[in-house]
Amino acid sequence: MSNGKSWYPNGGDMGYTDVRMESGRKFGNLSMIVGSGFGDQADSIYFELVNQGAVVQTGSVLVPIGSWLGFSGNDFDELRIRNAAPGTIPTSLIGGYNGLVVDSIKVSALPVPEPATYGMLLAGVGLLGVAARRRRD
């Protein structure tokens, strides 16, 4: 999914919606407007943050329809998100009916250091070593 896109499983589905970067990089920040295909009531949103295939955090939050929902940190590369039909609680990845609506996705990825950065770091450490050796002599 790219920035500013919306998504809705027309007719609903039975699983989580996966949000990942096409590049495979980790998220710095991820936010979106969430809603429900179940009507105009507050909705329970269930989520799992995943890093390299392992779940690192799970949770749920009750949000009014059309609210912003955000996640930040650098310990996840995938978001699994769903809502639940009123009166149901999903107990597994395929439990309970889902009618999640997602809109206005905003993403920032963690920066990837440039290879030249490492070269400059090594050169700087080398110069510090030379300066320290000259002082000793």
Describe the protein's architecture and organization.
The strands form two sheets. A four-stranded antiparallel sheet has the order 1-6-3-4, with no helix packed on it. Helices cover 16% and strands 40% of the residues. It has one helix at 115-136, and strands at 17-20, 27-36, 43-51, 54-63, 67-72, 78-83, 100-109. The radius of gyration is 22 Å and the shape is rod-shaped. The protein contains one helix and seven strands, in the order E-E-E-E-E-E-E-H. With 137 residues, it is of the alpha+beta class. The protein has a single domain, classed as Sandwich (Immunoglobulin-like), CATH 2.60.40. The longest helix has 22 residues, at 115-136.
**How many helical stretches?**
1
What is the helix/strand order? EEEEEEEH
Q: Which descriptor suits the 3D outline?
A: rod-shaped
What is the C-level CATH assignment?
Mainly Beta
**Proportion of residues in β-strands:** 35-45%
Architecture (CATH level 2) name: Sandwich
Reading side by side through the largest sheet, how are the strands ordered?
1-6-3-4
Number of strands: 7
